[in-house]
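Table 4 source record.
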Amino acid sequence: MSGVNHPRVAVLALLAVAAAWGSTFFLTKDLLTRMDVADYLALRFLIASVALILVHPPAIARLSRLDRGRAVALGITYGIAQLVQTEGLRHTSASVSGFVTGMYVVFTPLLGAVILRHRIGRWAWVAVILATVGLGVLSLRGFSLGTGELLTLASAGLYALHIIGLGAWSTSRNAFGLSSLQTVVITAVCAIGAIPGGFSAPSTGRDWISVVYMALIAGALALIVQTWAQAHLTPTRAAIAMTMEPVFASAFAVLFGSDSLTWRMLVGGALVVSAMYLVELAPRRKFEAEVQHLAQ
């Protein structure tokens, strides 16, 4: 694929992932009025796991022993983050939850600098600050630090670790296998979370359609694309691209849900988009030298 700008294509791919995640917000909000959180997550990732294994059965077997261990670690991290985030959502508003979860854009460069010991350039920090302010304008309508916020903040840290791990360990060659095994592990983690209350399935055809869509498009396909994209991007750059999720969520809520367009959506969305624009215009060496992928 000579002549292909892999980082630019990877950013566009992550924007597509953020759009897919954003499209699920109003669907999930509606679905969770009739399903338990852990039941929904376990079923969603089970369907995604089966789909990935059926599409390419040898993918997991072809992973090296080291890659399998890494996929298990990534899957456990992501699965716990999902459960902690959704538990936090029970104790706080959706808008505050969205903002606090988006704080992975701050945690990613901080943890990346500590764990991988690489210096973060000033352009990356400017983009991080812009994205954070944009998320705040988009989401916050008052803020107090309680149980829900603390749990959601913990999930943001776990998402940041997941982003760093994918950035360090994923390659174009292992992307599918890594995604498949991660999804199996996420299913197991969420299933364990569903055990205490027992398992219940969707009761209507409409709910099944929602779950299948979120499993295949926002689950299996999104994780494959994210894993491939992060083989070509630094973790901070990837995190900034993924902060577009609440912007897309707001857009879908206005277009297909019951929300109205507000100045907060316009200003907050513009700031997040500005952070994305800065990432693409800033001196490329500042970003590409930020965190190197680890040797396989």
